[in-house]
């Protein structure tokens, strides 16, 4: 979920100024795996993506250090990736099998990858790292251009409730185990839907902070972005296990199909 101070240009035109797609990974790549080793639903996500692909190739936008890509590859599925940070790619390359995955370094709203894919996936709320709705619309268009007819674009994203914030701010535990705890401090502007986030990671090794700015988008807004890109909503679940999405859900996994 990067945020920075450089303008770049890709296949769909200039991205918003003051945006550096490499900033998040550059800041956290060296200890990303140790910090986020307890991310929930990884196994469920891999199983669902493998089912959706039906053995076809998968493109992961924001592939990072390979949390999803490596176990998908171990299932015999061809995986390619787009990643904003060369530092994150370097960590992926150092892992067994990581050197066999083709990764394009660039902004996933614009970067082009050869071939067509059964599934394009953007997990862990990473689409919010794109700084404006226009950038997110271009991301949908880019995903559609990489899909084969009948293929799907899968987004995992959180659902925010203004009632979770007091005076526009909140502090909540993100995850924990017997070795570490992470608290998330957020400042939410309900008018612009901009979210300033600081993750406070506590462990026996000390305190680790990482901060970024997100552009929140509701599920209904994503549906409109999909229609602009020629995609249609096929399924929406609360999580990777296929749980029903309800008014009380605080996360969604949305599956958008490119008509055959």
Give the CATH architecture of the largest domain. 3-Layer(aba) Sandwich
CATH class of the largest domain, named: Alpha Beta
Shape: globular
Q: Biggest β-sheet: count, sense, barrel?
A: 7 strands, mixed
Q: What can you see in these coordinates?
A:
It is a single chain. A seven-stranded mixed sheet has the order 5-4-3-6-7-13-12. A four-stranded antiparallel sheet has the order 8-9-10-11. The chain has a two-stranded antiparallel ribbon with strand order 1-2. Helix 6 packs across helix 7. Mean pLDDT is 88; it is low at 1-17. The chain has 260 residues and is of the alpha/beta class. The protein folds into two domains: 9-159 and 217-257, Rossmann fold (3-Layer(aba) Sandwich), CATH 3.40.50; 162-212, Single Sheet (N-terminal domain of TfIIb). It has helices at residues 23-28, 32-35, 42-53, 69-74, 86-93, 133-146, 219-228, and strands at residues 9-10, 13-14, 58-61, 79-83, 102-105, 117-122, 147-158, 169-176, 180-189, 194-203, 206-215, 232-237, 251-257. It is globular and about 45 Å long.
Brief sketch in words of this structure:
This protein is of the alpha/beta class and 260 residues long. The chain contains seven helices and 13 strands. The two termini are 32 Å apart.
What is this structure's SSE topology?
Layout: E1 9-10, E2 13-14, H1 23-28, H2 32-35, H3 42-53, E3 58-61, H4 69-74, E4 79-83, H5 86-93, E5 102-105, E6 117-122, H6 133-146, E7 147-158, E8 169-176, E9 180-189, E10 194-203, E11 206-215, H7 219-228, E12 232-237, E13 251-257
Parallel strand pairs: 3-4, 3-6, 4-5, 6-7
Antiparallel strand pairs: 1-2, 7-13, 8-9, 9-10, 10-11, 12-13
Helix pairs in contact: 6-7
């Amino acid at each position: 979920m990067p945020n920075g101070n450089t303008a770049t240009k890709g296949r769909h035109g200039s991205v918003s100024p003051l945006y550096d797609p490499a900033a998040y990974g550059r800041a956290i790549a060296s200890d990303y795996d140790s910090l986020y080793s307890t991310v929930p639903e990884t196994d469920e996500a891999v199983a669902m993506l493998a089912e959706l692909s039906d053995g076809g190739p998968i493109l992961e936008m924001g592939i990072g250090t390979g949390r999803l890509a490596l176990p998908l590859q171990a299932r015999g599925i061809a995986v390619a990736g787009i990643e904003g940070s060369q530092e994150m790619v370097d960590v992926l390359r150092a892992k067994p099998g990581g050197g066999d995955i083709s990764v394009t370094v660039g902004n996933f709203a614009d970067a082009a990858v050869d071939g067509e894919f059964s599934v394009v996936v953007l997990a862990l709320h990473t689409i919010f790292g794109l700084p404006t709705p226009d950038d997110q619309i271009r991301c949908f268009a880019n995903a559609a251009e990489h899909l084969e007819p009948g293929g799907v674009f899968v987004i995992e994203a959180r659902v925010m409730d203004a009632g979770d914030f007091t005076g526009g701010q909140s502090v909540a535990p993100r995850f924990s185990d017997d070795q570490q705890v992470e608290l998330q401090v957020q400042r939410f502007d309900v008018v612009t839907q901009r979210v300033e986030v600081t993750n406070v990671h506590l462990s026996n090794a000390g305190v680790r902070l990482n901060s970024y700015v997100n552009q929140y988008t509701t599920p209904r807004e994503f549906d409109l972005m999909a229609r602009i890109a020629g995609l249609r909503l096929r399924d929406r679940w609360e999580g990777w296990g296929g749980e029903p999405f309800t008014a009380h859900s605080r996360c969604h996994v949305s599956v958008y199909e490119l008509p055959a």
